[in-house]
Amino acid sequence: xxxRDLNATTPPLRGTPPEEGNNTPxxxxxxxxxxxxRHTKNYRSLPFNPALKERxxxxxKAGNLSEVLLWNQLKKGQFKGLDFxxxxxxxxxxxxxxxxxxxxxxxxxxxxxxxxxEYDAQRDAxxxxxxxxxxxxxxxxxKQNLAGVMDFLTRQLFPSGxxxxxxxxGSPSYGEVDGDAGRGG
Length: 185
Prior knowledge:
single chain; alpha+beta; Endonuclease, Chain A; four-stranded mixed β-sheet; disordered C terminus
């Protein structure tokens, strides 16, 4: 099943939840003790649309090459001891990778994002509204310069001054920050 096939089953996008309480119909908070146990409140406090569970599972199984290559660097705490989730449901969106400890979302942008600039902008605004840092990485960079991508992620998630990632409140892209090819916009 391709991403295009999966997109056909996507529930209609509901707008960004209201400022107070994030009480969008169809979304619920993950109750303590349900699902994976996490050692951070950041993980459980995110809005969750249970209607997307099967789609997220299918995306994890299908996986494109760049996501699999990056996942092999991130899984099981291999990257700086951080715990990442793959195809994580946040609100009405499924993000490529999520790290609760750093409140960071990683998005691998390939050709499937070429005609989705408005959708990506809405998703990024929603995620940043939740206080998450959204980091974009080009598909081609993962395939051709994985070491450079990992260095970029280190700088973004562990800024020299300590504290929150450089991208907090913004949406850095690997190519834009490092002066490479850049993310199409």
